[in-house]
Records
---
Amino acid sequence: MNAMYGAPARIRDLAADLVDHWEARRERMKPFVGASKSGGAPGKAMVVCATREICVRVYDALRELRPEWHSDEFEKGAMKIVFSSNSRKDTDALLAHALTDSRRKTVINRAKDPDDELELPIVNNMLLTGFDAPPIHTMYLDRPLKGANLMQALARVNRRFRGKEDGLLVGYAPLTENLQRAIAEYTEADQRDRTLGQDVERALDELRNEYDVLTGILRGFAWEPLIDRPGPRAFVDAALKTANHLRDPRTLGNNPDQLDDPRQTLGRRFRDHAYRLGRFWALAGSSKEVGSRFADKPAWKRHIQFFAEVRAYMAKLDAMEREARGLPVARDVELCLAQLTSSVVETGGVTELFAEAGLETADLTHLTDALVAQLQNSETPHLAAEAPRRLVERKMREVTRHNIVRQTTFSERLQDLMMRYMRQQYTSAELIAKLVEMAKEAAADARRGEKFDPPPLNWRELAFYDAVADHGTARSLMGDEALAGIARELVTGVRRRLKPDWIARESVRARLRSTIKRLLARNNYPPDQQKEAIDLVLRQMEHFANERSVNGVPED
């Protein structure tokens, strides 16, 4: 083994190939597993050598090519050898990498830790069975293995981790026949499914298939001329305009009334297939056969990069939309945004949309007629409309976060407005104009309490005012000041009861309901509207109690 597999020329070629492959592979895996907090590689790989001596030779060859991967300290360095050692028999070369039991355990734990800089554990026999390290997504296997031992080794890379769905085995030793024999020992169901042992040929087929699907989704949109334009921003502008096309309700395939599943819009389909394209590109991008699959597409690499750029844009837009609505951002989207260091993401094109229109900060009070006109005349009208919508949603959540009546009113109005736009009842320019109106109304809503006679209503009293003024003829019969007085009494009377465990008890709710009913009757509140008002006041109280429990409602 040492003579055949450890020949100096072979080790030199193997190390060079491994470095090239790993540096490309770890970059392609960034969108799926992320990068370590310490700045190490996205995920990890395991190098399996035929003997312990060859482990050392491979390590030395890698160190010569990438000296920064080496460290004399066991708790540092991007690569480490893990093997058992006999101090009485081993050569000095082996002893230089020998570890005590405690230090070996530390190195093994480093291999499991996704945030540790160790990215290439090099082994001979150890860690091939029973070692579970989900961040490991690639195995470089340079020793002959058969049967169960081969399948056990292969299973080191098939653990799900973050967005990782596939592990890759790179075989430097002859493995194909042994792998097929090992698979034949499994059940018929396993052989049909072939979760283990898929050949990279299938990934190449899937890669080309996803490429064709994505070009089909963009059929009719001139994206190729856009990316071929001269200038440093050509790629950015092309991605921005493509994202606009994919999200625009006027684009065929985006109208929810014409879809069997309203969620499967053109943009959603593009993102799903672009994710799969990236997944198979990470698996098969280093294959020597990949070029043969795209013999008819000379610019295929640039196109794949462009699809990844557009996916990053789409993910960024979706993330901004969810943040505006106060919803969490999905983990896969966070990884995509954090790790795709492409020109589009680095320039922050979407977040700079307002800045390009002259609006440096997301401030609704600066939406002048001139800026609105710039947005309405944008080359990406749908994205220009999405930007003020996100501003409106953020402002709405800010000014109505403690007021369930206003929350409901604004949300329903915005939802109705956007549904009309998606059904193409409004153009992008008309939508922007209506959003600006809502934006100004939302900005003014926080100051509504100031219009009441001294003392003005604070935000808590204003919430209860809305709760009793939101029904039938109450406002026209009683007037704002009378309802404001009821709101002040409600806040004074129930403030001390704002505890979640109290309001959750039915007996306490019954007493509160009785107290509210007497207060409303004493102030001549319309009897036919009392039930709805009482229910809404109780809901408002519960909201305050829950907010105080979770976030801590501030004092006036």
---
Amino acid sequence: MTAELVRGQNHPLSQARLEIRVSAGAPIVTAAALSDETGRIHGVEWVAHPGAPTQPGLEVSRQAAADHRLAVDLDALPEAVHRVGVLLALPAGGAGPVRFGAVAAPFVAVTGLDGGEIASYTLTGLDTESAVVALELYRRQGAWKVRAVGQGYAGGLAELLTDQGLPQARQLAGGIDEAVARGLARSVQAPPPRTAEGDRSRQTATPALGPDQGGTAPQGAPGPVPPTSPYGVQPPSVPGQPAPQSPYPGTAPDPSAVTQPSGPTAGGPIDYSHPRRQNAAPPPPPPTAPPAAPGQPAQPVAGDATGWSMEERLYNQVWGMFEDLARTAAAYRSAVDFAESRMDKELEQVLSDPRSRIGGQGDAAREAARARHAQLVAQAREALERDLSQLTAEADVVEPALPPAYARWDNPVWHAYRPPMEIPMALRLGDLRLPEADRIRIPMLVRLPLERGLWIDSGHTGSSDGSFTDSHAMGRLAMETAVAHAARLLAVYPAGEFTVHVIDPAGSGAQPLTPLVRTGVLSAPPALGAAGVADVLARLTQRVDLVQMAVRGGVADSLPPGFDTSQQLLIVNDFPHGFDDRAVNQLRYLAEEGPAFGVHLMMVADREESSGYGPLLDPLWRSLLRLTPVPDDHLADPWVGHAWTYEPSLVPSGSQVLQQVLSQVAAARTKYL
């Protein structure tokens, strides 16, 4: 059971070889400092950092990233070392946030090599600090323990290292900043701000740039937060490998991130890197529309964002629309809150004076306060409607222009579908909307390859209409949603580069799975019973182990002949039915380690049904992106604090498009084989 530590609490460590996983809401820098019994760092060689990522018994990430893994071997540490401090810092000199109070609370976990969490700590209460000692591993009477520290420093790494007695603290902090800057220089820079002619930012009080990009926070927004999508979470980085890309549009992907097999090869080395499309700043969008008349909004054009290809421009434009809708909704909510607070204050002043509580004077003051409130709300609503009209017009031209990977199932582009020759940038998993703009649907795009597993929640959700309260109907709809997502994944990958496995222990998903089974796109019939569960999980965990060792050892070309290098998707229905303790541990392993090595998980489950496992499965659910088969406002936006309503991408009732697409996928696979 994981020990969830609070500040100052400690927990014994029974293993010498550990991993420390760090997850934050923005790219951060990690380091590990060795110190003696008094907590003093003797020299720069006692610090592992991006410029010198390996030290005896330590290995840290080489770049700033939102997720990190630090490798620690306590038995390999020098004899004089009695403490290992895990240091977190925000990159200096960049356009990102400059204080931890502006980002989501970092989460740090100490795990064994099997992935099981030993202790975890969430660093809450940070404000102006830009560097922090998160955890400390320390030796006491021959035994090692971990302590939650959470000591922050507003002066950054220089102040932190100085406080720990390092004489060359400022020089080392500068060297770390330079190493991080060199890593960023190898990535694509963010596109420049739009000019007045191409700027889609709305005529509101909100800025065109986010607070972490040099602008100011929207009125009423809960402070600046990192530019990260509300659902695109980066995978943990592997020790010795570059940090993964950011899923957020306009941020710089790492060209060398190791996440994606490119496909089978004949005798040559296997390339597990995603085929990046950028190695320099993308060009501006081509001039496809005449400039707008003075005082009039620009005419929306599909693909008016920056990018090397139309696909990339549409991807960036969709997330530009997401940003615009988030900003204008935040401005409207802020204006309404201000109007209400002003009216409350004026009414309080009226009531505080006994002479104005009764009579015509008091009534007039109250009416004046309500009139000013109505005027302010009307002005805010007028600005909101103007912005929504422009966004609606943009959505009307963007939606029909989307390629199959980004398009809804009812888009005519699917009727002209042909199996692709290369992997697209992203995949549509549904739509997002806000209550203030119910008529606008923003496509929910996630980068490929999938950076985390998917969980289709078949339990009771917060559906606005209260439908599908019957558990059987909900379970069937959840499985149909999973099939639609799996079919879309099969459709957007080239032939032979995506394989789907299904575990359905009780056979309850037989009818929703019919399109996949009938067209023959599955690698094998759905696995039934406990024996089927054990067989599929054993094969996939063995595959992850093999690829993990080959990639980390730099011998990817030594995999067995005929090894299937395609991406693997495992669909699990009715969890935990048919799963024993061993199978549960294997499933957790696939969820945590699989995505980085080509194995992805899609769970169709009701979390309450697995409540008997207690907190053992909490890491599993946290590692998955929760989706629902019905509209549900469960997706939190850490950027401006909105709760977005998610709507799944389902095939229209009575449509044969799914069958047609899967038939073409199966035919292309036959030719490929």
---
Amino acid sequence: MSDDLQSGGRGREAAAVDKRLTDPEWLVNADPGRVLAALDGATGREEVLAAAVYRASAHLHRDADAGVRRQLLALDAARYGDRGLAARFAAVPVEDEAAARWGVDWATGGLVAPQLRHTFTGHTDGVRAVATAVVDGRPIAVTGSDDDVVRVWDLATRQQIGKPLECQSGWVYVMAVVVDNRSIAVTGGEDGTVRVWDLATGQQIGQPLIGHTDRVQAVATAVLEGRPVAVTGGRDGAVRVWDLAAGRPIGKLPTGDAGAVLAVATAVVDGRSVAVTSTGDGTVRVWDLTTGRQVGELLTGHTGGVGAVATAMTEGRPVAVTGTSNGTVQVWDLATGQPVGEPLTGHTSWVEAVATAVVDGRLVAVTGSHDNTIRVWDLTTGQQVGEPLTGHTRTVLAVATAVVDGRLVAVTGSRDKTVRVWDLTAGQQVGHPVSGHTRTVLAVATAVVDGRLVAVTGSWDGTVRVRDLATGQPIGEPLTGHTGPVLAVVTVVVEGRPVAFTGSADATVRVWDLATGQQVGEPLTGHTGPVLAVATAVVDGGLVAVTHSADATVRVWDMTTGQPINKLLTAHTGPVWAMAAAMVDRRPVAVTTSAGATVRVWDLATGQPVGEPLTGHTAQVNAVATAVVDGHPVVVTTSADATVRVWDLSTGQQVGGPLTGHTGAVWAVATTAVDGLPVAVTSGWDGTLRMWDLTSSQQIGFLPFPLPVHAVTVTPDGGLMVGFDWELARFSPC
């Protein structure tokens, strides 16, 4: 066949793929396996965007029904900044499903990245270790987790291979893969053992290797005198070498009292096999594996503990790349023991993982951090390559690289329990995501500022942000001043001006003028623990703020003077987690919940408890909101027991049975009226938002999310503002 005919065939095939990827109805209703197989064939701008949108929640699409998939795709299109595509997804008809009841107006996109290729789920705890290999000609990833399980994944088909390997050794910290006629994995465990696994059969090879007296925190492999060996480091401060073919120890390196070994890598320096080890005191050592002796002086100069080490060859010289607790990355010449260039800066927290690879002919390091990001560094220039890879919602604990279908990928594991695969060669801009907070959104409120509706949000990143509710665009700069996560936000009008009250883990409450973006007065101080919630009420004709804290107290503040009122409500025996205000029999009350499963009601005029505690939940109550149902004031409570309960505040009795449907802890609740009916909106760890008719106690609405939902509020115009992990989204009824 001629080249022209071949290229023509490829062109027709690409056109067919592109045509399907621009069809929202096909993406919503087609089998996810077929769609995933087509995504890598995207070529045009619109098609590449559609592929990125589908991949953002691909790990959920396979098991979701078409109605859920429709909503997730609409949300992810909005996260990529394409509101038109979001609307087209929401309008797709789905067989046996009603039309979508909610449309997403906009969303932030801080956790979407076009480089994401797939997300593996299955681990039930943090993924602490990742290694890659080629088995029977196919690239695989091997992952170890705090759930005591090792899983093997086919990187080409995106499927798990075989059953999980049950380690029975406690948390699986680290692993490496070598090939000696067969592919094996080496794992280190919480119990101090080293185990070897045959990846073809999924069986453990021989007995556990015993010698460490505490958890094994680092594993690397090498070839020593023609034999495969493992080098392990433990919390006991020991570095041990094991003959993997014979299943026996070879020796122990004389580390002395250097402290716990955090990381191990191997390399060849001047023809010698060496191990590079790091410890919490910030030092790095190089060892000759043949003689068991230290090579040269300590590699010193780090200003924090060294938790990650990788090795590579650059321009013919062996180097080590280290990641530290102060967020920097340093390159070292292993032949001379000297640093190469200045530290690489960009991470904002401890660098937990480092891997090296060659991308487009240049040596790069791929690093993962406590700041939840992955960064790629050009080791020749010392510059960061592109933007950080975002998507993980907790610490990135492990990084490895592999080649899949001719493309270099990074495989990362995180404390968020997921494994993600990233294309390191994909650098093009996809969509126009709106920036947002850089950590979890913990609180959301709305207000009217200069005639326009705004959302006010507080985050774990310590900032307060104000956004135009119609467009999602930020208004002004973030409000800064808190020195810890912002845990609570409430808005109110004071003397004709819209203000926000914010409570923080720094134990203060701050007041902000939303029109000017300036702080009003000095912070309200007095709590000795994080301020977990803030509410406002009118007591004796004056506006008060009610704050509750992890110090187990509730305080009342006169907002005219900014001074505390001489009332300190202290009946709780643990941190006070949630609070709302209401009027009961014409008296202002506060409803609070503590670290236990009880709810208390307080008379704000007297500072005294009203009635007995409300009991019924079987786990911590996370959120409370008030409403009026059939003329009776009620409080709606949500709990870690996955239930929602409704209580009559006049009688102190529960109204009906618990509202069930959530499959995990319920974090947030808001109340509103829909078509004249009182409604509660709840959200939680299961990544769902549910709406309940408080008159009939029936669920009347459902929205899925790709991440846990920590915050929700009802907007003045009947819409919803939702905080799901770092992201925000605004919904309106269709």
